[in-house]
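Late entry, written up from scratch paper. The run itself happened at the end of the previous shift, but nothing got recorded in the book at the time, so transcribing now.
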Amino acid sequence: QVQLVESGGGLVQAGGSLRLSCSASGVTLRYVASGWFRQAPGKEREFVAVVNWKSDNIDYADSVKGRFTIFRDNAKNTVYLQMNSLKPEDTAVYSCAVDPSGRGSPRSDEYYYWGQGTQVTVSS
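Output as recorded:
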């Protein structure tokens, strides 16, 4: 049984930083692609970042490039999202997801397993 558990969300002022963690069980992250998505109230889910199984294909949404970094710790079977220079428009529920194909896609329908999400709120 695959489980993805996110943590690290919270309330932060604009310009601050947070690091989200996604701890996996039932799946070995170094063999799959891991992505982060977010959904703000009243908006559709949107792609944030992805790392493929080899970690040689990393992609970001334009809105977070230069501010967010996705990386994986194979020993801990955990994928992280380091978020710097946070803006109020980054406020959303952030979820991690796994694409068993390993390719690394920005399309949410490519992902089979999802975590419950963690709330990130950025105050102005």
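The chain has a mean pLDDT of 97.
(Scratch paper discarded after transcription.)
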